[in-house]
Amino acid sequence: MLEYARWKYVLIAVLLAVALLFALPNMFGSNPALQLAHADHSPVTTAQAHEVGAYLTAQKIPYQSLYVQSGRLLVRFSDVSDQLRAHDAVNARYQDTYISALALVSRTPAWLRAIGLKPMPLGLDLRGGLDLLYQVDIRSAIGQLLQTYAQDAGRALAGAGIHTNGISVVTTSGSTLPNAVRIALAPQTNVSAARDALSRALQGLTVTTESQTDGTVLQATMSQAQVQQRENYAMDQSITTLRNRVNQLGVSEPIVQRQGNDRIDVQLPGIQNPAEAANLLGQVATLQFRLNDTENNALQAQQTGNVPLGDQLFTDTASGFPVLLKREVIATGDELTDATVGESTQGPAVNITLDSRAGENMLRTTKANVGKQMGVVLMTKHSVTSVVDGKKVISYVTKEKVINDATIQGVFADRFEITGLTLGEAQDLAILLRSGSLPAPIAQVGEQIIGPSLGRQNIKWGVTALIVGMIGVLAFMAIYYKVFGLVADLVLVANVVLLTALLSMMHASLSLPGIAGIILTVGIAVDANVLIYERIREELRKGVSPQAAIRAGFEKAFSAIADSNITTLIAGLVLWIFGTGAIRGFAVVLTLGIATSMFTSLMGSRALVTLMYGGRRKIARLHI
Amino acid sequence: MEFFSHQTNYPFMATRKVWYGLSIVLMITSITMLFTRGLNLAIDFTGGVSAEASFPVTADLAAVRTQLAAAGFHDAVVQNVGSSRQIGVRLPPEPGVKIQQIRARLDAALKAVNPGVSGISLSVVGPQVGSQLLSSAWWALAGTLALIFIYIAWRFHTWRLSLGAILAVLHDPILVLGFFAATQMSFDLNVVAAVLAVIGYSLNDTVVVFDRIRERFEGNRRLAPNVVLDQAINQTLSRTIMTKVVTSIVVVALLVLGGPVLRGFSAALLIGILAGTYSSIYISSAIALQCGLTAEHLFPTVRKTAVDHLP
After folding, report:
1. Residue A157 shares a structural domain with residue A185
2. What's residue A383's pLDDT?
3. For residue A568, is it within any domain?
4. What is the rounded CA–CA span in Å between residue B212 and residue B223?
5. CA-closest candidate to residue A302, choices A316, A284, A291
6. Residue A253: other Cβ atoms inside 10 A
7. String of DSSP letters for B103-153
8. Chain-chain contact of B103 with A275 (C-beta, under 8 angstroms)
9. Which of A49, A203, B48, B275 has its Cα between 20 and 30 A from that of A495?
10. Can you give the residue ranges of every domain in chain B?
11. Helix axes of B159-183 and B127-156: crossing angle, nearest 10 degrees
């Protein structure tokens, strides 16, 4: 008699049922679709949806369904050519109204979606799209922080009446030199008083003294943890801003994620115009609201080249006229909380909202300056790669331009509007304003465009290989191990279901290497069964009774299965941790696949075999 | 159906010098290939541009080359992929030039050949990306080997088996790299993933053999180590071959049907699996034996200190 605990049967049954449910959404496939969204995030109304539907029908473009989901209009098509035709048609007619994006919408039935079950999203290599890789200049984020520290230090020392011969900032990316503020004290300064003042002003930094020939130098150093924290902040903030900009593009299911120490990977599925997308994402925009200098003549300043003290000369990009702006900044892009396109009595407008601190500042300024002009300066940084001494160096060039110059019509604080724009100008200005600023410059270091046809071809290749490989293995096992082979086959199928369920639960996106990982898992999962069956055959050869052979087979194979799988698991986990992109996708599948295959072959196949042979008192012969 | 209906009894240990010789020859050949021909590194590592485009008519490769040269792309590699209308273009990295500009120039050059051209895929990799990828791959390799060495030493109580496993496992990726150097197949990131997977997978076999060695020693500690090792390998032989046959079925399916993206990946896996089977049968245990493995190492006896119980 063979026995197997009842709770184990229950556990296996429950797990398999749950896994089937989670894996189910992947069975339905997906439809090509068009996603339409308003540039200013306002939701699409039902009336607008109907209008688009009527327009598509008039253009003789058939669609399957059309509905509004979380404020965006989704139109589903039965094939890609309809989708592309509709995309062109919609762009021709509604270019100013909607941002349209090609999307892939799952055909999962509503009841499954209602309980939150979704299929694995497809990676870019399987559905086509644009992949951009950015490098964040995290050193400059540290540099900015140190500049602030340097100013604080200068103020604190001046306040304590201590003279300095200069304050400098040291930034390094390596670990040999510190990230620090260095203060050269004037000779005969009270060093300990200076040290105290500095420690109070720069809390958390380590202050050290160095004696040099021309006096003492104080150095306030950031700890490794502080540097790390600042770098993480810069990365998180850059990711947030990039995500905001990506949302402006109206792409469906974009992915913006950190890759390694200082890289950000942006995946935009189904994007049509990679050039424009890359350009919009790569800009480092920061904004400043500044008053015009109305007392001096801008034209004269431009001609003579004599810019009045405290002013800066610009050319208004819209009118082409020279503009003199005061250097004082009323509000910056960091303080801007929202900018949307709206309607005013004077036509299209951009509605701006500032945070409370900038609002107070704005109130104070506008009270004193009604009727005067206020300009908006947009600073964009572009990365330029050059070669110095055979090494690639990325530097950043800042461009400043006045994107808007408007008259202050009344007193306002944290909410106001900019008018006198065309609709297109208002939309552009709102997008520029909203995209805010990045804490550190970013440079694009990689780009990949995968056409939608190649994506479909890749899916076909992957799925065909999976099916053929799977059938080959199932057939071979059935022939080689007969009844036990069929048990192994069931276990293998269960393993693929479990793996698919786990991946769907994690919402891991499926790429071509991921499919390869699933196929490889099928091959590897066989191994545990083979170990058990070979062991049973061995015991039978020794002349042991069938039931004893089964028991011994499972028991003796256990340590071999555990040890051998754990070593493969180690390799998979290291790949998971060190790998990026496609390698990581493969590693995730491989690691999870090993775990599920251990479960299915040790528990699942034992349960099945016990179910088949356990009840019988005598077994004449095992079909193995 | 069975491959081995009776217990085999091949003298693997007695003939180990022959297998060492074979392995050394294979490794020297591989390493020589690596140094003389080198790997055909994909743009994942070198940086540069790789693009595929489709023409409405048969693509005029000479015209494409001329236009690319006119657009300032030197050393462009242009060839047909898939059909006579589809071309693949590979360009070396251009430090100091922005990706957008490269894309625009490439686009204009192809349009000049035929305005009806449409892009299938494009990847541009900055030169700074590749070196970092390569270094992270090395770290992954070193990390894997170190962790596995520790795990085996812990589970089997002896570094001799760890060393055998690690040496056997190093042997496999070297052969895979040698194969890629010899055939000049494109060596991309997917291949790196495959090579690292091969390491994990080839260990799988080795550990199964080790497990049997432990079991044999447990049953009879007085047996000579070389006899035990032979027995362990022979007893697991049918399993080793069987598993490899099944895994090869899926890998061959990937190789033949998986498309060009996975071709290098599956080729690396196939070579790695074959090499792994060989090395776990012939090499890993032999090295442990060479290091003087005995039952004592697997089952260390706790030495009792003599305690005087007399009053």
Report:
1. yes
2. 46
3. yes
4. 14
5. A316
6. 18
7. HHHHHHHHHHH-TT-EEEEEEEE-HHHHHHHHHHHHHHHHHHHHHHHHHHH
8. yes
9. B275
10. 16-41+129-298, 48-125
11. 150
- Please answer yes or no on whether B121 and A454 come within 8 Å at the CB atom: yes
* Cβ proximity of A590 and A575 under 8 Å: yes
* DSSP 8-state assignment for residue A79: S
Task: With CA atoms as reference, report the closest residue to A374 among A324, A338, A441, A337.
Answer: A324
DSSP per-residue string spanning A192-207: HHHHHHHHHHSTTSEE
- Is the pLDDT at B134 greater than 90, yes or no? no
pLDDT digits (tens, 9 = 90+) for A304-349: 878 887 788 888 776 778 888 888 888 877 677 667 788 888 788 8
Q: Letter for the amino acid at A82? A: D
For residue A532, give Cα distances in angstroms to A13, B123, B259.
22, 47, 34
Phi/psi at B54 (5° precision): -120, 130
- Give the closest-approach CA distance of B310 to chain A in angstroms: 45
| Nearest-neighbour CA in chain B from A512: distance (Å) | 8
Total of domains in chain A: 4
Same domain, A181 and A86: no
Same domain, A75 and A156: no
Read off the pTM: 0.74
B151–A578 CB contact, under 8 Å: no
Residue B305 Cα, gap to closest chain A Cα (Å): 33
Paired tokens of B129: 């990306």
* Chain A contact for B245 (CB, 8 A cutoff): yes
B 91-120 near A (Cβ less than 8 A)? 95-100, 103-104, 118-120
CA B53 and chain centroid, separation? 31
B23 phi and psi angles, rounded to 5 deg: -60, -40
CATH number of the domain within which A197 lies = 3.30.1360
Contacts with A604 (C-beta within 8 Å, 6 or more apart), sequence order:
A12, A490, A491, A494
- When the candidates are 3.20.20.10, 1.20.1640.10, 3.30.390.50, 3.40.50.360, the CATH number that belongs to B16-41+129-298 is 1.20.1640.10
A541 has a chain B CB within 8 A of its CB: yes
Topology of the domain covering B48-125: Alpha-Beta Plaits (3.30.70)
A322 and A429 co-located in one domain: yes
Domain end marker among A56, A91, A106:
A106
Whole-angstrom distance, CA of residue A398 vs CA of residue B200: 49
Q: Cβ separation of B247 and A476 shorter than 8 Å?
A: no
| Confidence category of residue A40, pLDDT binned at 50, 70, 90 | low
Q: Which of B120, B243, B253 sits opposite A454 (nearest CB)?
A: B120
**Residue A169 and residue A70 in one domain:** no
Q: Residue A207's domain spans which residues?
A: 139-227
The answer to whether position A71 is within a domain reads yes
Beta pairing, strands A129-136 & A442-450: antiparallel
A436 and A293 assigned to the same domain:
yes
- Weakest mean pLDDT among A95-99, A339-343, B34-38, B171-175: A95-99
Asked whether the beta carbons of residue A445 and residue B253 sit closer than 8 angstroms, the reply is no
Q: What is the pLDDT of residue B180?
A: 94
DSSP string, A568-608: HHHHHHHHHHH--HHHHHHHHHHHHHHHHHHHIIIIIHHHH
Report the percentage of chain A scoring pLDDT > 90: 10
Residue A436 backbone dihedrals phi, psi, to 5 degrees: 60, -145
**Which residue of B2, B97, B106, B208 is the best one to mutate when testing the A interface, meaning the one whose CB has the most A CBs within 10 A?**
B208
Written as six digits, the tokens of A162 are: 């201590």
Q: Which residues of chain A does B248 touch, with a Cβ-Cβ cutoff of 8 Å?
A: 523
B7 to chain A, closest Cα gap in Å: 9
Last residue in a domain, options A206, A227, A248: A227
For residue A89, being part of any structural domain is answered with yes
The CA-to-CA distance between both ends of chain B, in Å, stands at 70
User: In the predicted model, what is the mean pLDDT of residues A525-537?
Assistant: 88
A180/A313 same-domain check: no
